[in-house]
Structure formats: structure tokens, C-alpha cells
Amino acid sequence: DDGPMVVPPPVDLDIDLSQPLGLTFDHRLVVETVQKNSQASRLGIGPGWQVLGLAGDELSSRKELEQKLEVFKAEGSLGQSMMFQPTAVTAARAKEL
Length: 97
Prior knowledge:
Number of strands: 8
Helix content: 25-40%
Largest sheet: 4 strands, antiparallel
Number of helices: 3
Radius of gyration: 14 Å
Distance between the termini: 19 Å
Strand content: 25-35%
Order of helices and strands: EEEEHEEHEEH
Structural class: alpha+beta
């Protein structure tokens, strides 16, 4: 038994829209898969993490995220921040983070 589970605070990560993130999401913006050696894997994003926002705006659907990403790419605004809610971890693991 590793003790109680702890939900880490949300994290704001800088992403580069000129390259693929390497993620797939479900309709609730929960990360399903992370490609090896992708931008997402280098940032430490894992399955079960949930996208909360992009560039300071809250997001509620995958469609909304995709639309915002397209607008930023079209504008050439390639450096953005994306907020994620990491998955719960054991209390012991939380101390290591």
C-alpha cells in the first residue's frame, strides 16, 4: 500500500505549435495516449492528464481546443501555454514531484 492518493495542482506548460504535441484526447480533453519522444512526452505529460485551458482561456471540449489551436497556427502565434490537470498520484510519489 502506497498510502492515500494526492491530486497535484494544475500545471501550466509552454508548448510549441510549430511541432505536433504527440497527444490524443477523449471528448473531455483527457489525454489517452502520448507518443514516445514527442513534445508531450518531453514535457512530462501522461495518460489521464486533462487539458484545462489554452493561453489563459478555459476549455470545455476537444472541438474548442482544436479550433483555438487552428486560430493560433493561422496567426503564427506558435508559443502558447497550455494548462493541464495531472492525474492523482500516491502521497509518497507527490513528495518526489
